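Possible regression after last week's pipeline update?

I re-ran a chain I had predicted before the update to compare outputs. Posting the input and the new output here so someone can diff against the archived version. Not blocking, just want to make sure nothing changed silently.
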Amino acid sequence: MSIQSADKNGTGITENSTSRDAVSSFHSANQVGSTGRDRSNNETVLSVQHVKKRIKRKMIIHDVTFDVRAGEIFGFLGPNGAGKTTTIRMLVDLIKPTEGTITVCGHNVNRDPEQALRHIGSIVENPEVYSYLTGWENLEHFARMQPGVDEQRIREVVELVRLDRRIHDKVSTYSLGMRQRLGIAQALLGRPKLLILDEPTNGLDPKGIKEMRAFIRLLAAEGMAVFVSSHLLSEIQLLCDRVAIISRGKVLAVGGVRELVETHSHMAVWQLEPRDQGLAILQNSPHVQMITNADELIDDSIVAGSGADAIFTEMDEEHIAELVTQMTASGISVKGVTKINPTLEQLFLKMTEGEILE
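New output (post-update):
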């Protein structure tokens, strides 16, 4: 038989051996994107505790809790109407929570907004810049609103976002990526400890996305806490240390990207002969969940390459060996088992029941 551990592109390790030997040498190909940084001991910059928001008689946000640490990139994912934008607006005091507390560097955003917001730089939705002014003039304008921001600080943020060659050009001549960087420069003027970015790569080409990713990592490496809201799940998987998944106003999961993906059930593709007898064993196992919408949850190349007789299941890896043993004892030939580690996108679709991202 052949047992494979496949990534989302269908590649993996194949071993040819007897059923019993192959089970003992079953490999798991780790395809989880993660920065690998350990920020568990860093100070908490943003703390959201049991936050609720009611509008009229409808509860929009239900008991949301998470925190963001210094030097960490934290992803915030949610489908359309999940409450993602409402939560972000509460973080920056644009609206008030009905219950719960939001603190930034120990300051309560609701009770002491001036002190709390002093530590926040944010771009909510689109950067607010004036196209008829130069980049420098825009930054001068916003610097006047913040105490302690002088010309030297403007030069520092311009250099940081790499706009020094174009900073004296009109913003109307800027590309979308340059406008995004100018918006981030504006958000950094006050030396915030928390940077909130809503869809920072929206509309950028692949090169611009890569540059933005590198820039955000640079900020985190300098110790800044970065909160990123995005609909690009593959990008979040590459970029973030931890994520929160929100749906219908409730946080479904909070944790490290690698941790969340690896601790949830994996998908396994079975090649069995006779198929019907093997299928019956899988269907009767309490450890197996049958997948009927494989084309939605698994990469097309894997589905197409598995053949018409393939059986798609979801289960914990630890139960694969015992099922292979059970099938072998029942006279069923296990031609192959391909384990597929879920991506963040697949985990998201499962948790949110396929809802569309904002």
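Follow-up from reviewer: compared with the archived run. The first helix runs from residue 19 to 24. Marking as no regression found.
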